[in-house]
Amino acid sequence: MNIATIGTGIIVEGFLQAIEQLDGASCHAVYSRKEATAKKLADKFGVQTTYTDLTAMLEDPHVEAVYIASPNRLHSEHATAALKHGKHVICEKPFTSNVKELEALIALAKEKQLLLFEAITTVHMPNYHLIKKHLHQLGKIKLVQCNYSQYSSKYNQLLAGETPNVFNPAFSGGALMDINIYNVHFIMNLFGSPEQVRYQANRHPNGIDTSGVLTFTYNDFIATSVGSKDTSSMNFALIQGEKGFIHVKNGANGCEEVLLHVDDRVISLNAQTNPNRLFYEAEAFQQIIETKNHEQCYAWLDESLSVMKVLDAARKDAGIVFPADQI
């Protein structure tokens, strides 16, 4: 799997570190609008080719797949261009700005018979699979609680009167899309789509949500999902059943350790040996690309689309509108 990257942030470095650990995978090229930025990342990872022209990079015959970690608003544009050039796509979360954009991407990928993935760490974690395996031991589920809160250095810029991308409606930012999305995937991959969604958000005067509480109503239980970029917290996920509960330490995005509380016992479950939380998704994507397993890819796309529908509904409930919604 020869990849090229779009974006040069910390998440890209983590993904490239994961790629380095995979046999048969390598980064062939780095794209950035600025040559100096592209070269700095390329030099750090021993990548020989850099581009400042996106079309030129997408026309490179050595590039098999494109990893996209540009600002949220540009995900759809960059993924569309990559698919039209015959490249498989791995796109950072959130997949797109809204359902309309994602449906168009999925249709294009299927038309081109290409593979398209949302890079969401949670659902590929070995410990997440352990949660699924042991969930039945809790009995009837009554409550699910998730909290992923991380004070953002960009929030200081927002308070100072600047508008960094992550807090800019024009770039489809906000706490729901940037951080609470991990909780949403965590809950929905276990329990499916809820009957009702409510989102109560703390909003900046520019309309973006800096933190918020998302409530899922299922047929016989309730789930709450807290995501914050304006405060910090003890991060966790709790699944509470009539016969016990599961505690995921340090939040849904990494599933670092799972504590199963049943029959007055606490059992530690941990199948993760790699400290790089992006490794497991990179490994999964490589396997699907190498085996051309479109069926599994499409199943993941169905899940991502269900999540995007909930994100759209949540934003609508809170009155959060992106310019991308008006197109």
TrEMBL record:
Its EC number is 1.1.1.371. SUPFAM superfamilies: Glyceraldehyde-3-phosphate dehydrogenase-like, C-terminal domain, NAD(P)-binding Rossmann-fold domains. It comes from the Bacteria. Pfam families: GFO_IDH_MocA, GFO_IDH_MocA_C3. InterPro entries: Gfo/Idh/MocA-like_OxRdtase_N, GFO_IDH_MocA-like_dom, NAD(P)-bd_dom_sf. Residues 1-117 form the Gfo/Idh/MocA-like oxidoreductase N-terminal domain. Keywords: Oxidoreductase. Residues 137-246 form the GFO/IDH/MocA-like oxidoreductase domain. One of its GO terms (molecular function) is nucleotide binding. This is Scyllo-inositol 2-dehydrogenase (NADP(+)) IolU. It comes from Bacillus safensis.
